[in-house]
Amino acid sequence: MVVLNLPTYSFKIKSVGAKQQIFDRIRRRYVTLTPEEWVRQNMIAHLIEALEVPQTRLSNETTITYNGLAKRCDTVVYDEHYKPLMIVEYKAPHVELTQAVFDQIAVYNLNLQVPYLLVSNGLTHIFCKVDIANKRYLFNPDILSYPNLLITR
Question: Most buried one in 52, 99, 108, 136, CB count within 10 A?
């Protein structure tokens, strides 16, 4: 797999036939190891191990309904009361993070109304605070730690 712009973490990886699988510590099962899944698992490890997000406050593949259609958020981070705090959207490393990619997560947020958004392809990370009152995004070059997310929401 591609080396990402994140610290190096260890994972449980196994081969099943011609495919590889990686253990998802949030879903507690092995999933197919795709380039996007590689980004997800590395970012999840980073959120837990470096940014102090409790593992119990993370959910992968969270289903939401938007305009009557079921959509799936890649990861949702919850606050201490299990209210959605941040949506995380992953793309494979070769996928450029364009306005269309950011628009996808912004649409998800119309439903969840979280204060933070994070989009990552593992090489580039776009993190922002949602200023709902002024209808704008406040971009930050660094992803805030969980304690700081709770303080500044």
Answer: 108
Quickly count: other Cβ atoms within 10 Å of residue 144's Cβ: 18
Answer yes or no: is 3 within a domain.
no
Average pLDDT, the chain: 93
Residue 18 lies in domain: 13-152
d(CA 137, CA 57): 24
Write down the H helix ranges in 50-126.
99-112
Q: Which two tokens stand for residue 112?
A: 């969840």
Task: Tell me if 74 is assigned to some domain.
Answer: yes
Which of 75, 84, 65 has the alpha carbon at shortest distance from 36?
75
Give the pLDDT confidence score for residue 152 in this predicted structure. Answer: 85
Q: How many CA atoms lie within 13 A of 132 on its CB side?
A: 10
Residues 141 and 33: their CA atoms lie apart, in Å, by: 28
Note whether residue 107 is domain-resident.
yes
| CATH number of the domain to which 118 belongs | 3.90.1570.30
pLDDT value for 115:
95
The angle formed by the CA atoms of residues 131, 117 and 115, to the nearest 5 degrees, is 40
* pTM score of the predicted model: 0.93
Please give the tally of structural domains in the chain: 1
Residues in the chain: 153
